[in-house]
Model the fold of this input.
Amino acid sequence: MSIALQKFSVDGDAGQLEGVVHVPDEIPYAIAVVAHPLPTMGGNMESKVAVILAKTFADLGCVTFRFNFRGVGASEGEYTGGDGEEQDMISVARYAQEQFGDELPLILSGFSFGGYVAARAAQTLKPQHLILAGPAVGRFAMPAVSPDTLVIHGEHDDVVPLADAFEWARPQKLAITVLPAADHYFHGRLTQLRDIVKKHFVGVAL
Done:
């Protein structure tokens, strides 16, 4: 299966949002939308973790959208700390559903701040699957998530301590997949991150 990359833009409530869609050359099994890390720390849709997540979903046969939040790159508007960015992700997901059909299963995913945004957007969009890598618990008011959410966290995360992730997950009885010795950005561990996501979908109907 080959994957084509196409640029897209969509109207958000703060103006145009830019993004890239990974389009498989076969009929897609699902729609995936991936959110990037914190804009004020240089996060954008080219973040290595956001890109590896997008490529992984595309390899699984999903038409996959990654995009720049408002105020990042050519996306219009200004950073809001979560409220506006949640609306950005909802806008992109609804655009994706308009383009490819809302009968396809929806996957939301995000890294760090993007994980926080994806968890918030999931409350509105009700995706079939939620995949979070190093979600920014403790730094932002992370909502509770579905019990089948896949959460992947580095043991030595120096930005979002693993203890904070457990503190958030414990009351929900939520499992966390811990990558031993991995840091926040999964340096040198992106292949493992990819493989964990792929294994999550083995035997699971997309």
In short: The longest strand covers residues 3-12. The chain has one domain: 3-200.
